[in-house]
Amino acid sequence: MGDRIKILTGNAHRQLAGEIAEDLNLSLGKAQVGKFSNGETSVMISESIRDMDVYIIQPTCNPNVNDNLMELLIMADAIRRASAHRITAVIPCFGYARQDKKDKSRAPITGKLVANLIETAGIDRVITMDLHASQIQGFFNIPVDNLYAEPQIIKYIRKYIPGEKVIVSPDAGGVKRAKSISDKLDADLAIIHKERKKANEVSGMILVGDVKDKVALIIDDMADTCGTLVSACEMLISKGAIKVYAIVTHGVLSGDAIKKLNESSLTELIITNTIPHAEKAAQCPKLKTINICHTLSEAIRRTHHGESISSLFSDSK
User: Fold this and answer.
1) Which residues contact 203 (CB under 8 A, 6 or more apart)?
2) In DSSP terms, which residues pair with 243 in a beta bridge?
3) What residue stretch is flagged as signal peptide (predicted)?
4) Nearest to residue 40, comparing CAs of 67, 20, 16, 59?
5) Residues with Cβ < 8 Å from 231, sequence gap 6 or more?
6) What is the pLDDT of residues 273-290, one digit of tens each?
7) SS (H, E, C) the chain
8) How far is the C-alpha of 104 from the C-alpha of 17, rounded, in Å?
9) What pTM does this model have?
10) CA 165, CA 190: separation in Å to the nearest integer?
């Protein structure tokens, strides 16, 4: 890779950052990221990064979304003031992305706010994965590469999930994602229409499509409290599905999500490692992981060398 690139990380997902650096035959850069006694974030870059191409691996994810975001911003400021040539934020899970439009009176658009903060901190480019809404790319005035976990998901399905399949979108907003996967697998498509009383609480569900005597695969970008996911699973089983798998990119798994999964009829919940979840995987045997380390490391390598990364969006053979 040469000596003009540096991989740095905060405390959000050090394991993923280490795997990415190893995949690139690099060692992680020296940065001390902690807290002052009053709770403020403390950052010190412990080696020269002058005129280097610097990549910060830092998902702004749970369990400490705000701390992870502040670490990213303060690290970027420190790196910019240390005269780095270019700063790229690699944010596998982009926090605050769910509030991407003003859907109620007096509601914030936090996706845009975070984009402004990232630009103001001096970051030149963002690499992320499966944004909750693709229009978030338009919130930035800098280049944003929104990678997809779809190629890895399709490989996993072909290798580990046999039988006649039906791809299920858990809501109308995910139909495009589910349709793309069903086309590549030559599988049927079903849609669950859900009515929400409020966030994370669904009042009713209607299934559009046939799942009888098929293996149902629920495809989504995020699993949070898993209440909707478990309800969808029970509905699909009642409609005649043989087994139900759920495959999501970001395993937030907040609240009592693990308890719900263990007590549900779900065969497996397959998530990527954009968010650290080793502790939760130990509590839930249904939790399986797709490693997206190589996708991110390849995006970094190509960006550093000025190569196209478009094949990363579609290489699912």
Assistant:
1) 195, 196, 197
2) 215
3) none
4) 67
5) 202, 205
6) 999 999 999 999 999 999
7) CCCCEEEEECCCCHHHHHHHHHHCCCCCCCEEEEECCCCCEEEEECCCCCCCEEEEECCCCCCCHHHHHHHHHHHHHHHHHCCCCEEEEEECCCCCCCCCCCCCCCCCCHHHHHHHHHHHCCCCEEEEECCCCHHHHHHCCCCEEEECCHHHHHHHHHHHCCCCEEEEECCHHHHHHHHHHHHHHCCEEEEEEEEEEECCEEEEEEEECCCCCCEEEEEEEEECCCHHHHHHHHHHHHCCCCEEEEEEEEECCCCCHHHHHHHCCCCEEEEECCCCCHHHHHHCCCEEEECCHHHHHHHHHHHHHCCCCHHHHCCCC
8) 37
9) 0.93
10) 11
Residues listed for the chain: 317
Please identify which residue in the block is written with the tokens 């706010």: 113
Do residues 239 and 265 lie in contact, with contact meaning Cβ atoms separated by under 8 Å? no
CA distance 261 to 264: 5
Q: What contacts 116, CB < 8 A, 6 or more positions away?
A: 139
Tokens linked to 172: 């109308």
Backbone angles phi, psi at 222, to 5 degrees: -155, 140
> What is d(CA 152, CA 18) in angstroms, rounded to the nearest whole number?
20
Q: Tokens 């999964």 sit at which residue?
A: 261
> pLDDT per residue over 97-112, tens digit each?
999 999 889 999 999 9
For residue 231, the tally of other CB atoms under 10 A from its CB is 18
CA dist., res. 31 & res. 225, Å (int): 34
Contacts of 226 (CB under 8 A, 6+ apart): 253, 257, 260, 261, 264, 269
User: How much is the pLDDT for 233?
Assistant: 95
Per the prediction, the chain carries an average pLDDT of 93
Asked if 178 and 172 count as a contact pair (C-beta separation under 8 A), the reply is no
Question: For the sheet containing 125-129, what is the strand order?
Answer: 5-9, 53-57, 86-91, 125-129, 144-147
